[in-house]
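hey so u asked for the seq, here:
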Amino acid sequence: MSRLRDGRNDSSASLDSKGEPKRRGSGRRRKESPGPPELDLLEAVRIGETTVERLGGMSDGELKGHVKRVEELVKKAEEVEAYWIRKRVEAEREKEAFEGVVGRLVEYARKVRA
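ran it, structure tokens below
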């Protein structure tokens, strides 16, 4: 604080009453949604390319395990799809809101100029 009082502060950073740099963005923040669910695409491709011959050579236990893993991957893929659909809907809403704001600003600018 003494540097501030003496006028020797070369920094352009804002300081709080204790002389600490102020943190920016301490106000309202946008909620960050978690990323999409994890989906191992390489495994999905590998399992999807399983041939009829390979399936025919599997024991009952192997076949049940394979089917179970396919069902798990399908469920996970549906979760990923639902995530991206939600993101697209959110983006469309934001775009519409932004376009509405821009439209109102254009109307206001035209009214002020007239």
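Residues 16 and 27 are 15 Å apart (CA to CA). The radius of gyration is 29 Å.
lmk if thats what u needed
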